[in-house]
Design goal:
Elements: E1 3-9, H1 17-25, E2 30-33, E3 42-46, E4 49-53, E5 66-69, E6 74-75, H2 77-89, E7 96-100, E8 104-105, H3 108-119, H4 133-141, H5 154-174, H6 182-196, E9 200-201, H7 203-211, E10 217-221, H8 248-252, E11 262-267, E12 270-272, H9 285-293, E13 306-308, E14 310-311, H10 312-322, E15 326-330, E16 340-349, E17 352-354, H11 361-366, E18 368-375, H12 392-405, E19 409-413, E20 421-423, H13 426-429
Parallel strand pairs: 1-10, 1-11, 2-5, 2-10, 5-7, 6-8, 7-9, 11-15, 14-16, 15-19
Antiparallel strand pairs: 3-4, 12-13, 16-17, 16-18, 19-20
The protein binds guanosine-5'-diphosphate, 6-O-phosphoryl inosine monophosphate and magnesium ion.
């Protein structure tokens, strides 16, 4: 029987999913992205070099690992070509990569529309990555999307493109944006089909074959984070897909019973880019210190990330929603040197105790965090590789997170490099 591990973000994205996926990918036969697109920015570091991936899975650095961009993703083929070129320039050209024929394409007008919708929201910006993710998913569900496999059948693609442009050009003109010329788009996508065509296959069939093979190790790499989930996040300040492990079966084309091990990637504190409520957000010197020490600037947009204390209300909520079996506690090294560290155990809203996020952001924004405060630790922990060698105060912090969230910490990350990883869980040691 195969082993499966789902790596998901449990906060507002950028938790370190890329680093952890790459760590386990070194031993995995397959890495599958199942939702989102190039709004993601996943960093991987090894042998002193740092790489950044957007829509390509983080298993790409291992020549033996099969990398899959699943049907649940929205894929911008132009951006994939650029990403592959960038990897080539960095010396990465020996890989196995397949793209689902059923994945929806992000077309050039989707990013135009993403920008335009942001401008007309009357100051209520979502702060999207402007990659066209929302408009691409909208077209998918409106059944006027174009799919990767469509490009491989020129006559069919011509028909689908004409139908899509009839709608999209009207929409663009209504918003004062430039319409697209059918012929120019068609010709360019035929070129893209030539470049990417050999990678476009029925990926669900390939994943299912692998799942049934004895001893195969398969990783599912989530993008974004549970609090950006279109259903369970801080709506409308969310992305347009479901980063949860629950979205793996649909987004990869497998049956739900294959999913049993979910690793929730969580920073030892919290960050958020873009707008929306963030109860434990800090605006003081500590936020500045953490931002600089953790290099908390967006991988995709370069925006400074908002910083806050670890929020156990969110951790409990996301672990319940996504079936998280253990935490991968990230950027733990960044907390070294703080006099004290805080964990938010619950909120107060209008004088009442709240221990799960409310559904509306109007209530969420009024939630006041209630903290426990623990002693900090001075030691630099970035060179530590065994849990037992951590300072006592750091261990107390880990134990408190386990106690308050009722989920064990299976991995601790003490630096961006692949080697700066402490594996505690025996199940994960055996993956
Ligand atoms: P992702 O989107 O979840 O893959 O996360 P990002 O790559 O966008 O952001 C995480 C950032 O933290 C990257 O710059 C990583 O290199 C860095 N990082 C990951 N783990 C650690 C860690 O344990 N310590 C430190 N200092 N940096 C880390
Ligand atoms: P990774 O995979 C952090 C945020 C955007 C914005 C909102 C909607 O690197 O963790 P979108 O472009 O998706 O419509 O933007 O979601 N966002 C992310 N924040 N990490 C990400 O991905 C994100 N992907 C989207 O900043 O607030
Ligand atoms: Mg990121």
């Amino acid at each position: 029987m195969s082993q499966r591990l789902v790596v998901i973000g449990s906060q507002w994205g950028d938790e370190g999913k890329g680093k952890i996926t790459d760590y386990f990918a070194c031993r995995a036969d397959m890495v599958v992205r199942y939702q989102g697109g190039n709004n993601a920015g996943h960093s991987v570091m090894f042998n002193g070099k740092k790489y950044s991936l957007q829509s390509i899975p983080s298993g790409i650095f291992n020549p033996a690992t099969i990398n899959i961009m699943g049907n649940g993703m929205v894929i911008n083929p132009e951006s994939v070509v650029l990403e592959l070129q960038k990897l080539k320039d960095q010396g990465i050209s020996d890989y196995k990569l397949y793209i689902s024929d059923r994945a929806t394409m992000v077309m050039p007008w989707h990013s135009d529309l993403d920008g335009a919708y942001e401008c007309i929201k009357g100051g209520k910006l979502i702060g999207t990555t402007k990659k066209g993710i929302g408009p691409a998913y909208s077209d998918k569900y409106n059944r006027i999307g174009l799919r990767m496999g469509d490009m491989l059948e020129p006559e069919y693609f011509a028909e689908r493109l004409a139908a899509a442009l009839e709608v999209k050009n009207k929409e663009l003109e209504m918003l004062g944006l430039k319409p697209y010329d059918y012929k120019i788009v068609f010709d360019r996508y035929m070129e893209l089909a030539d470049i990417l065509g050999s990678m476009i296959i029925d990926t669900s069939a390939l994943i299912n074959k692998e799942l049934r093979e004895e001893g195969k190790k398969i990783l599912f790499e989530g993008a974004q984070g549970m609090m950006l989930c279109i259903d369970h996040g801080t709506y409308p300040y969310v992305t347009s897909s479901t980063p949860s492990a629950a979205s793996v079966p649909v987004g990869a084309g497998i049956a739900p019973h294959w999913i049993d091990n979910v690793l929730g990637v969580a920073k030892a504190y919290c960050t958020r880019v873009g707008e929306g409520p963030f109860p434990t957000e800090l605006h003081d010197e500590i936020a500045h210190e953490i931002r600089e020490r953790g290099h908390e600037y967006g991988t995709v947009t370069g925006r400074p990330r908002r910083i806050g204390w670890f929020d156990a209300v969110i951790a409990r909520y996301t672990s319940r929603l996504a079936g998280i079996n253990s935490w991968s506690l990230m950027l733990f090294d960044v907390l070294s040197g703080l006099e004290t560290v805080k964990i938010c155990t619950h909120y107060e809203l209008d004088g009442k105790v709240v221990d799960t996020p409310p559904s509306t952001i109007s209530k969420f924004a009024r939630c006041k965090p209630v903290y426990i405060e623990l002693p900090g630790w001075k030691e630099d922990i970035s060179g530590i590789r065994n849990y037992d060698d951590l300072p006592e105060a750091a261990k107390v912090y880990v134990k408190k997170i386990e106690e308050i969230t009722q989920v064990p910490v299976g991995v601790i990350s003490v630096g961006p490099d692949r080697t700066q990883t402490i594996i505690i869980s025996d199940t994960l040691k055996n993956f």
